[in-house]
Every structure is written in structure tokens, then in C-alpha cells.
Amino acid sequence: MVNDIEILKLSEVLTSISHTIKRTFRNPIWVETEISNISSPSSGHKYFDLVEYNGNGNIKANIKGNLWKNNVSKIFNKFENNTNEPLK
């Protein structure tokens, strides 16, 4: 502890977050969000923001996301098959 603040390693924090999510959402879920600022660099990966807006059009929640190139086709196809819309 430093100044009464517990110090944890990143892996410990991520493990705790993972366990919390698994306990809270025991079954698969879909998250309703808007994709913003999607980029497709030459690496083949996809980088984007997931955004939720409030009723006034202001950002209510925002998180960065990435999709590794070996999963791009699978995820894009799954999304389109389930929504009948392209992921964009």
C-alpha cells in the first residue's frame, strides 16, 4: 500500500473485472451501441469507438474497441447474418 491506496498489477485488475462480468452476465448478451470512428489500417485489424448517446445527442458512454484481423471476417459475417445489416 502507498498512502492507504492498494497497489494491484494490471493482470489482477483485469482478472477481477473478468470475474465480475462473468458473474453478472451468466448468459451471452448483445450490447446495443453505435460504432464510431472505425479505422482499417494496412495491418488488417479494425479499431473503433463504441458510443452510446443520450436523448440530447451527447455522449453517455464511450469505450475503445479493436478487432484482430483473424476475427474480422467472422465477426462482420455474424453481425450481418443476425441483423441483416453490414457492420459499419
Give the gist of this structure.
This protein has helices spanning 10-24, 69-83; strands spanning 34-39, 46-53, 59-67.
Structural features:
88 residues, alpha+beta, three-stranded antiparallel β-sheet, 2 helices, 26% strand
| Gap from first CA to last CA | 45 Å
Number of helices: 2
Strand content: 25-35%
Rounded mean pLDDT score: 92
Strand order of the largest sheet: 1-2-3
Please summarize the sheet with the most strands: 3 strands, antiparallel
Total strands: the figure is: 3
CA-atom Rg in angstroms: 17 Å
Indicate the overall shape: extended
Query: What sequence of helices (H) and strands (E) makes up the elements?
Result: HEEEH
Residues in helix, %: 25-40%
Class inferred from helices and paired strands: alpha+beta
Regions with pLDDT < 50 over 5+ consecutive residues? none
Give me the secondary-structure topology:
Elements lengths: L9 H15 L9 E6 L6 E8 L5 E9 L1 H15 L5
Antiparallel strand pairs: 1-2, 2-3
